[in-house]
Design brief:
globular; homodimer; alpha/beta; 272 residues; 31% helix; 6-stranded mixed β-sheet; 7 helices
Chain lengths: 272, 272
């Protein structure tokens, strides 16, 4: 495994420490937990909390700030955080108007966020949630029943977070988050596998002329392996699946292109 | 060569087109040239222009905008733009208060920016320049006489760009840019080589446990090849060279960490 690293057992802790140290004007860390919260807590506002496994940076800590998340909970790499840090995060950001949990559709995340939400409700904190499931590639997978939640989650953070910042109530913020979920679709591909530090080996192997289509954010294999094609054809292939899933005809659409953390920007910008 | 790509001959053109199409509120492209300029030209302000080879994204087009650059000129990958597009860029952004060229210290860039500046001066546009040479790794290299200009250039764009935005005159903006140049030092390392699309092959080879220390932004080999060490030791090794070059004792320091375009954020955040 070739990575810039100190200690496999400490990658998450050291990463969260560095993130809050780099941006103290925006971020704080909860003592004892890998939970990043806004430095400027705002009373009377619906609080948004999200999170999941580490290894998806800037998700989720990088989306904490004014107009987006109030807290991000980081599990180990590609592993759901347990209910306890989520519960601590909810209590820390609760500001009198309830808390919305934005959860990506992975079995562990859904279960642990739900449990944490119930614990917080027993403390009298109103908690609601949305489950993001934007990935059209697979219906059921190793990690999920139903569609997976992937990059489209960023748009939920952005749009629901902006609504919460205006002072909207919990039902309204949940409704707008759900509207984003209902309307966002994505699909991914990769030309290289990724390597989880704790495993030390790539999740799968690709030959020099192959791409993996429909890959998930944990580097789990996708729906098909094909010969690598020109960028435009790759985009056509992904768009065909996305548009077959939801008809965007007649609607304005926001387009999000992301490189899964290690694709040079040049390869994301091509346009004719 | 495994890259997401359409056509080796078109990577720069298609990248610039995509960049301005993605951010029309900030960026425009000059007809016929790979020159990105601010969408909101501001009269009476000193204009900043920079540029160089492509392949360093978000440099340089990504630094065009309010408080930073007014124009960025993109050459072919790792190749200086010729004087003509630089000259066209200068004319396009000149707004009555002169133009400052921020040039990284590579022989081709220095020569071509100087020639373009002279052409613009013959048109009556006052032009000044600073040469950025922040890289402490090597004194002379394949690409440069003297120290190379690398990531520290971003701080010149940011600080001199902010000064220009306040309405400062050309001499003042040049002086503050030069002050940044005089005080910024950087050094790089890499665990993988990069591949120029037109060549199709990595610039050098590293074995599974090796790192290249003192690497330049063109993937040119560095000063030494060593066994890959823990992140903290790598940082110590780079900092020792930086601090030996300039004594920062008693000064406040801004720290810039960057991943050369393809390093996951996690590997950049580690902190103890």
């Amino acid at each position: 495994m070739k990575k810039i690293i100190n200690d496999v057992a400490l990658v998450e802790d050291q990463m969260i420490l560095g993130m809050v140290k780099a941006y103290p004007q925006y971020l704080k860390k909860l003592d004892g937990y890998n939970v990043v919260v806004r430095a400027n807590k705002k009373q009377g506002k619906v609080a948004l909390i999200s999170g999941g496994g580490s290894g998806h940076e800037p998700a989720h800590g990088g989306y904490v700030g004014t107009g987006m998340l109030d807290a991000a909970v980081a599990g180990a790499v590609f592993t759901s955080p347990s209910p306890e840090p989520i519960y601590e995060g909810i209590k820390a950001v609760s500001a009198g108007a309830g808390v919305l949990m934005v959860v990506k559709n992975y079995t562990g995340d859904v279960m642990n966020f739900e449990m944490a939400g119930e614990m917080a409700e027993m403390d009298g904190i109103p908690v609601k949630q949305v489950i993001v499931n934007d990935d059209v590639a697979v219906k059921d997978s190793l990690y999920t029943v139903g569609r997976r939640g992937v990059a489209g989650t960023v748009l939920v953070h952005k749009i629901a977070g902006a609504k919460a910042e205006t002072g909207a109530d919990l039902d309204t913020v949940q409704a707008i988050a759900q509207k984003v979920v209902d309307n966002v679709r994505t699909m991914g591909m990769a030309i290289q596998p990724c390597t989880v530090p704790a495993s030390g080996k790539p999740g799968f192997e690709l030959s020099e002329d192959e791409m993996e289509v429909g890959i998930g954010i944990h580097g789990e294999p996708g729906t098909q392996r094909e010969t690598l094609r020109p960028a435009d054809e790759v985009v056509d292939m992904l768009m065909e699946r996305i548009l077959a899933d939801l008809d965007y005809t007649g609607h304005e659409v926001a387009v999000l292109v992301n490189g899964s953390g290690a694709t040079p920007l040049m390869e994301l910008f091509y346009c004719k």
